[in-house]
Design goal:
The protein has 271 residues and is mostly helical. It has helices at residues 2-10, 42-84, 94-112, 126-154, 162-169, 172-199, 203-210, 220-236, 239-243, 248-260. The radius of gyration is 36 Å and the shape is elongated.
Length: 271
């Protein structure tokens, strides 16, 4: 009888079995709790990072045309108002010109997202310049008409009367004059942009503003001619010919690079 009581005392329950290790017990004074660190999910961080990168890329893309057209529109407005000063009239305000520049910048951003804009990128330089200028001009034309349509609807006019209003009372002479100046400005902007892509991103700025002729063994005209020869050489020969030291293409490539290279300057010694 005592041995049976001993088995019950040693065991846990009436069966005499030992408790399973690691199983929580209700009678214990302490209970184990699982703490989950409150950290943001990686998916939300990735989405926020992608949205931020997208907005930054869009802002940097819209910034150059917007700055260019802000300067261009305000310069045109300044000269026009100076001409009209003798007549006691004013063409427009500088705020409207700045807002119009933002509209043009947004139209350029939308046009750059289309594949059609790169249709003549591999043609002679005059083709992409003229095509992109006309394409941008058409996008701005549509955006300006859409802007006038929104203003017309905001004045609580019926939708069906917009086209008769445009034909009868719209100032087409002023609208066309602005569109002509926009086309001229687009020719200048696209030409500079295509030359920048041709020389490499940032190289046009470096040639115009930061570099000096004394830094190069050749003057600007000679450098441009050498770059043209290098382009023609790359079009007529393969990479394997350039890699072969005994080929004529390799020798011509080395000669062009030698003429274009800047002679290293000796560093001043620190005494």
């Amino acid at each position: 009888m005592e041995a049976r009581k001993c088995r019950v005392r040693v065991g846990d329950g009436l069966t005499g079995r030992k408790p399973i290790r690691g199983a929580p017990t209700l009678s214990g004074p302490k209970t184990s709790e699982i703490e989950v660190p409150a950290t943001p999910s990686p998916s939300s961080d990735g989405v926020a990072r992608r949205i931020g990168a997208f907005l930054l890329r869009e802002f940097l893309e819209i910034l150059p045309p917007t700055i260019f057209f802000v300067i261009g529109f305000n310069l045109i407005l300044l000269t026009t108002n100076l001409i009209l000063t003798n007549y006691g009239e004013q063409f427009s305000s500088y705020l409207l010109a700045t807002v119009a520049a933002f509209v043009v910048g947004k139209a350029v951003l939308v046009a750059n997202a289309m594949r059609t804009i790169r249709r003549f990128d591999r043609g002679p330089l005059i083709r992409p310049i003229l095509f992109k200028s006309c394409f941008y001009w058409a996008m701005v034309f549509i955006a300006r008409l859409f802007e006038h349509w929104i203003k017309y609807l905001a004045a609580h006019h019926p939708l069906g009367t917009f086209l008769p209003h445009m034909i009868a009372s719209f100032s087409w002479s002023q609208f066309i004059a602005v569109q002509l100046w926009i086309f001229v400005l687009f020719l200048i902007y696209v030409t500079a942009s295509e030359l920048n892509h041709l020389f490499g991103e940032g190289e046009l700025w470096h040639i115009l503003l930061t570099s000096r002729p004394s830094e190069f063994p050749l003057n600007r005209r000679q450098r441009i001619l050498e770059l043209v020869r290098l382009s023609k050489l790359a079009d007529t020969h393969s990479v394997d010919e350039f890699r072969d030291p005994t080929s004529a293409a390799h020798g011509q490539l080395v000669d062009i690079v030698r003429r274009l290279a800047v002679e290293p300057r000796p560093h001043p010694s620190i005494t």
